[in-house]
Amino acid sequence: MAQGNSILSGYGTTVFEVMSRMAVEYNAVNLGQGFPDQDGPLDVRQEAARYLLEEVNQYPSMMGLPELRQAVAAHNKRFYGLEVDWQKEVMVTSGATEALADCLFGLIEPGDEVVMIEPLYDSYLPIVRRAGGVPKLVRVTPPHWELPRDDLAAAFSPRTKLIILNSPMNPAAKVFTPDELGFIAELLLKYDAYAVCDEVYEHLVFDGRAHVPLMTLPGMRERVLRIGSAGKTFSLTGWKVGYITGAPALMTPVAKAHQFMTFTTPPNLQAGVAHGLRKDDSYFSGFTADMAAKRDHLSDGLRRIGFEVVPCQGTYFVTTDFRPLGFNGNDVDFCRTITLEAGVAAVPVSAFYQDGDVTHFARFCFCKREEILDEGLRRLARYFGRS
Ligand code: PMP
Ligand code: GLN
Questions:
Q1: Which of 99, 308, 343, 365 could disulfide-pair with 242, CB 3.0 to 4.6 Å?
Q2: Predicted TM-score (pTM) above 0.70
Q3: Residue 242: phi, psi to the nearest 5?
Q4: Which domains does the chain have, with CATH numbers?
Q5: Which residues line the pocket of ligand 1, CB cutoff 6 A?
Q6: pLDDT mean for each 10 residues of the chain (387 residues)
């Protein structure tokens, strides 16, 4: 085999792909990888189709179609009161994944320290390491996912370049409180550091809580890069359209990474997303309410089967403790067993930690049609002898 880069070669295939392949192979209900089973709004897809057939399909501006950058700026103003200059402070990317890579490659100098809070979305650590960053990990753990403030403060140093903050957080379904955000903001000011805020689940915050971007806190406007994803906000994960908002001084180096990474994103998809971001408030509130109902449906069903369900404040996911079911093994064994034997795929939460003792929690994805959630629940109930 060719000698690949030693950092990337050290990683296996991502757990999301592994579990989805296993789900297909064993004909399991896939409650593993996070993707909705119904496509997003018809008018958004129609706008993308119209643009594809009637308008231009050549390279758009590297920063993104003006109408999408304007829509991102207006969305920032409508939901968070942020004043954003669409020409200087918004960039469109091919998904939040590219946005994250652009921010990290654009900002990190070899040797810079990067603070991250486990559980970690899969791309963070490999990209930080590939960019030459030195990871400083802090962890929150189920069932309370409480932020260990002393550990977080200790992870910062004069060498800290930035923190990656994911709120709402995958898979913890934790929404950072304004107080926790305030604590992080103080650290950024104290150490003159930046934040890359992965806010792809910004419209999946439940029970009347508000999503508060770190960027809205005093002193943070110039220090934060805020990332959104149309995949999540419009249930179109295959489109891979993301957007970054940030002050010009941060955006300039980030745009350098983007120009050498992808340079642009398909124009018709950008036009569809621009249309989506301009939809009425009722679309966004309806989307949140619909997902909260799915969360409740799956959580109630899992609880009836005997899982300990960890409260979910946001995202697509519920974390469960499977020990009450009497399963003898770790979370990787558990997810494999239920995929093969019960016919339901889930994701082991240990995959989001470097190492340690979080080994008895499984993540289930609830952004599925009710009949699919019910079929998954029926299969699990049968397997665990609860029906
Ligand atoms: N960040 C988090 C926390 C995610 O869960 C995902 C999920 N897909 C992404 C980033 C990537 O988003 P995209 O599909 O837009 O690249
Ligand atoms: N965000 C999704 C999840 O957590 C998966 C994204 C991916 O497969 N890369 O399941």
A1: 99
A2: yes
A3: -125, 170
A4: 8-40+282-383 (3.90.1150.10), 42-278 (3.40.640.10)
A5: 34, 95-97, 121, 166, 170, 198, 200, 229, 231, 237, 240, 242
A6: 88 93 96 96 98 98 98 98 98 98 98 98 97 98 98 98 98 98 98 98 97 98 98 98 98 98 98 98 98 98 98 98 96 97 97 92 98 98 88
